[in-house]
Design goal:
This protein has 12 helices and 23 strands. By secondary structure, the protein is of the alpha/beta class. Strands 1-2-3-4-5 form a 5-stranded mixed barrel. The chain has a 5-stranded parallel beta sheet with strand order 7-14-8-9-10. A 5-stranded antiparallel beta sheet has the order 19-20-23-22-21, with helices on both faces. Helix 1 packs parallel to helix 8 and helix 3 packs antiparallel against helix 4.
Length: about 475
């Protein structure tokens, strides 16, 4: 039996980040990974989707050019095979960068197999050829990632794809039902629609992309609905047909040649046999993870990345990998776990316009304790020049502290506004002080200033002096 200081399960963003820190403190470690190497982000998530979105936005932009005096764009067409080739080529380049560090690991430290617990400190690794090996570790970090949720009845329907298989297609489909309008479904659905694919979006919840503010939701339904029809509050059932798939939802049905199932992702903890390590699981099959330390309470096992079932995005996974590694190092040195505070929560869908939130969502707040500032971008000069002057930003501020507590939006170039708002939120800057920061003209951020002014009128008894005092 091999004995090590640290065993890391999973070679994604969290595992990679953790290993980089662990290697600085011990060379007695192993990495255990099942299947392909490369992060979910680079291979099947953030990056290939952004390539497709960029292509779609570029093609859609052509529709706005004739009014600017640019002629002949009506001759442009989409070559679906070339589109997917571009996506795959870019994707492969991103993946290559993520797997390079693993390729440099010594073979005896890089074990490609399935891990499962035998007891609290011991993992059994089963290799593809049937061989097994046991590894006993003082500390264990679990970062096995996640997989798409797919109902059992859909698994044998060839025309059903998930985000894990969508980017492997040789060309774009002709008619698609996107089932699930979270970030992934909404991004890919809109991109396909803008490239000429006939798309129908179906969502069981009464909102899309996690929007909880009713006014932002209404505006998002209006704007995204320009690209493809959206059906909320509908469960879907599938039937195979001679020509594709019949999708039944509500009292309606359509036949499509492909279904994109975007129903979320499930943590890959269920194959690890955590019960053998004495770990109790809740009704969702998840252990009790202290998110300030990433440690499963009462154990020497840490969980990071998508496997936590929390924030499935690269930068959050990397942070969790760091926290887990810091505390593993503490434990190896006989120290107590350190507790870390999460950064301001920030989420976005790279739709057009961008949808997103920072801090607390509307549904999490007491309306009696907050003021709300808003703006819809329709009168700003720069967005009108860009022909991107539709949206809505809603900012929430605490009436007592006069600091931002959160916000939701669908806004042109909203990804940049969301970052700026997350920064001042984490720094706990008062609304009046934010208004004294620079706002360059002409710019999208001027819309943010209008929303902040709306807040200031409600929060302060006197007008805010929007200048910096000497």
């Amino acid at each position: 039996m091999r004995q090590v200081d640290v065993a890391i399960v999973g070679a994604g963003s969290a595992g990679y980040t953790a290993l980089g820190l662990i290697k600085q403190h011990t060379d007695n470690y192993v990495l255990i990974n099942e299947g392909w190497y490369g992060t979910t982000c680079a291979k099947v998530g953030c990056m290939p989707s952004k390539v497709l979105i960029q292509i779609a936005d570029d093609f859609d932009r052509l529709k706005k050019l004739p009014v600017e005096g640019i002629e002949g764009v009506d001759q442009a067409r989409v070559n679906g095979e070339a589109v997917m080739k571009r996506v795959q080529t870019m994707r492969d380049g991103f993946v290559e960068k993520t797997i390079a560090p693993w390729q440099k690991l010594p073979a005896d430290k890089n074990l490609n197999g399935r891990a499962a617990f035998i007891d609290t400190n011991t993992l059994e690794i089963t290799y593809a050829d049937g061989r097994t090996e046991q590894v006993q570790a003082k500390q264990i970090i679990l970062a096995p990632g996640s997989r798409p949720v797919l109902p059992p009845l859909w698994q044998d329907i060839e025309e059903v794809v998930t985000s894990d298989t969508f980017f492997e297609q040789a060309s774009l489909p002709k008619k698609v039902a996107v089932i699930g309008l979270g970030v992934i479904g909404l991004e890919l659905g809109q991109a396909m629609a803008r490239l000429g694919v006939e798309v129908v979006g179906i969502e069981m919840a009464d909102t899309l992309a996690g929007i909880s503010d009713p006014e932002v939701r209404s505006k998002a339904l209006e704007l995204i609905g320009h690209d493809f029809p959206l059906y909320l509050g509908q469960a879907a059932q599938l039937e195979s047909t001679e020509n594709g798939v019949k999708v039944n939802f509500g009292e309606q049905s359509i036949e499509v040649d492909q279904v994109l199932a975007a129903l979320g992702r499930r943590p890959n903890l269920d194959t690890l046999k955590l019960a053998n390590a004495g770990i109790e699981l809740n009704e969702r099959g998840m252990p009790d993870i202290d998110l300030s330390t990433m440690r499963i309470k009462g154990s020497n096992i840490y969980v990071a990345g998508d496997a936590t079932g929390q924030k499935a995005i690269l930068h959050e996974a990397a942070d969790e990998g760091r926290i887990a590694a810091y505390n593993v190092i503490q434990a190896l040195q006989q120290g107590e776990p350190k507790h870390y505070q999460a950064r301001t929560e920030l989420g976005m869908a790279f739709t057009h316009p961008n949808i997103g939130f920072f801090g607390k969502r509307f549904v999490e707040l007491d309306p009696n304790h907050i003021a709300i500032g808003s703006y819809n971008f329709n009168m700003l000069g720069r967005p009108r020049v860009m022909q991107e002057f539709e949206g809505l930003i809603r900012l929430y501020a605490d009436k007592t502290s006069k600091c931002l507590v959160g916000g939701e939006m669908i806004a042109p170039r909203g990804e940049h506004i969301l970052h700026q708002l997350a920064w001042v939120h984490q720094l706990k800057v008062e609304v009046a002080e934010i208004l004294r920061l620079p706002f360059y003209h002409p710019n999208i951020e001027e819309g943010l200033r209008v929303a902040l002014r709306d807040l200031a009128k409600q929060l302060y008894n006197e007008p805010v002096e929007e200048v910096v005092k000497a």
